[in-house]
Predict the 3D structure of the following.
Amino acid sequence: MSTILVIGGGIAGLTAAIEAAETGYDVIIVEKNPYLGGRVAQLRKYFPKLCPPYCGLEIFFKRIKSNPRVKILTMAEVESIEGSAGNFDVTIKINPRYVNDNCTACNECVEVCPVERPNDFNFGMDNTKAIYLPHEMAFPLKYVIDPEYCKKDECKACLSVCKYKAIDLNMEPQTMKVNVSSIVVATGWKPYDASNLDNLLPEHPDVITNMMMERLAAYNGPTKGKIVRPSDGKEIESVAFVQCAGSRDENHLPYCSAICCLATLKQATYIREQYPDAKVYIFYIDIRALGRYEDFFAKVQKDENVVLIKGKVAKIEEDEDGLIVTAEDTATGVKTRQKVDMVVLATGMQPSSSEYKVPGIEYDEYGFVVPKEGIVAAGVARKPADVASCNEDATGAALKAIQVVRGR
Amino acid sequence: MELDPNFSRKLISLGGKSLKKCYQCATCSVICPISPDDNPFPRKEMIWAQWGVKDRLLKDVDAWLCHHCNDCSEYCPRGAKPGEVLAAIRAAQVQTYSWPSFIPKIMAHPASFILFLAIPAILIYAVLKYAQANLGWGYIPEGEIVMSNFIPHIYVELAGFVVGGFVGLVALISAYRFWNAITEGGAKVFDIEAIDDMEMEIKARKSFWQAVLSALWDIITHNRFKDCGTSNYRYFAHLMMFYGFILLGISTLGAVVYLQMGMELALPPTDPVKVIGNLGFVALFAGTTWVIFKRFSDPERLGLGSYFDWFFVILLYLVAISGIAIELARLAESTTAYYIYLIHLIFVFSLLTYAPYSKFAHLLYRAIAYVYSESTGRKVEK
């Protein structure tokens, strides 16, 4: 009767869970993916200290592992929430992983698996086998089978090589019921679907999103951290960043996604670190580097190879060996046509509820969680925010959740 | 630079309702298929409109290079509808350059529509009463429907010359004022381009008459209109209205020639002049109907239009409808034809007399803007 349910195992959910557990409350984390860490796990570096994400995530995992009060359910979804603050009956569905706890991540199964699937962790920029480890640093460190691609009984190649009897192709979905006092909704976000931006050539392989750029730059990404042009692997001589691609736009996301300006400035440094001569063009409406991030903006601005142009890109065209982005430079009143090797669309944050709504949770018109008695929102489920703000937000959410458990 | 907040308000009242929403991202200037590279529109007009930079807006020839495609409004992230703001700027220019200036001021109020229709109605009534008393015509005749038995054509022709003279005079004044405003500082005549080995290439721009010819070609073919995306239907609809009007004009000229030849004007439907007239009517009516229908079917995307706009559209439509109604009544041998004829005369008088102050004047301003843009090279190269 004193448990807190945390929906979502990203940076906000993990923070809320561990803060509540270390204060002495039982916590259940329900995570839809086969791994914890959410969007942060996909980044190359994150603010404010620009360390690789596993700096922070590893510490969380260690704290979770050593705390018996935290129960983790991966590949799990909340099916229903009934009751009221202090007494919620929650049904949780656990999807089959087809791999049990015996798994030692020896990788023998992957070597024999004949089927490939697009790697969603890398936004489809490479493939994994149908049995795969979500990513190198995945926690829990267990393989998983994608039932959409696995041929199951027709194949069974992995079964025969697994020495630990870790694979069970007959695993069924399970449902469990729990009673909790309060719920923290930290279901996070997804990158806004760039295919809606029909004037920005979204289907072109060299027009990528900022999250794809994180994967390109990440050491465990599809190119092992080398940023190259996706279509042909060419080294980068010039890149254009298109700010507010689908954000602050009534036709797409009407709100400011809060993180894209800093993400672009950060990614400009990824490119400049790898290519000392490359040119980076950042097209913006206005740069929103708030608070202490102003210093980072100033630092990037000093780089002579980073050109900031005030004017939104509204047209991208394919050209011989490259792309041409067009914007009106509002400082000079001239339409600039810049030829570049690749384009990064700084797409914004859309709450995950846009594709998956937790039954029993109320959402506003944009898909952000509307809090009510006993149900607290944390992180991007509440509003667009950077990692540091999500941590602070989640700590506050943990306190709110504890207040319900204890009674105020 | 003088700022006039009242001018902002004026543009809002003329249909640029959302202009204050603009946050200057310049999506519009890029998405516009007919905006030039150097100082593209409509982003600059949007900030001028917000600040009320009256003198620049009134000299802004770019407003007339805009064909209200609405591609800008479609992609505008703020719903600021630059397409409607530019239409409002055009309306403000028409009101500014026409003469005498009290007419557009009164016309700006929708309630005055009745007044503007009442003027020709009273005039025609007075003429009829006078004719009945002194000239022996103006009574509803009996027998076969022949308009000249009711009002001899020579008087209609005379009225036409009076109205035409007045309209021509006002148009000349407007054109003179507009041309002076947009060419202030002189039109650019030469292009200077640096080429290799420290050489320069100096290219003379088109001469005035070359520019006039190119502009005419663009008008006849609706070349510039063609690139419109969102409101692409307007290219076809306007083409129909445009040629409908020209056909009606040709048929009117034909009628005048017939009159000079002493012929009777109750023409059979097979007469070539009548055929051209009817074709013109069909094109005009269909084009106008299409425009009205489209506006109401998707007002959010295509814009419902301002009163300034509708003043013209409604009159045009009324002229077309009453014109065909006369013909139908005449074919049905009903004397209502005479009454409809009177109503038709009121509408025609209104359409023509108020042309320099209404959206009808666009043909003058836009043609001048075309000539200017041709002579200065202010055009999207294809």
Observations:
- The radius of gyration of chain A is 22 Å.
- The mean pLDDT of chain A is 96.
- The interface with chain B takes residues 199, 244, 248-252, 285, 311-315, 326-328, 330, 333-335 of chain A (CB under 8 Å).
- Chain A has three domains: 3-95+173-190+350-406, 108-161, 193-347.
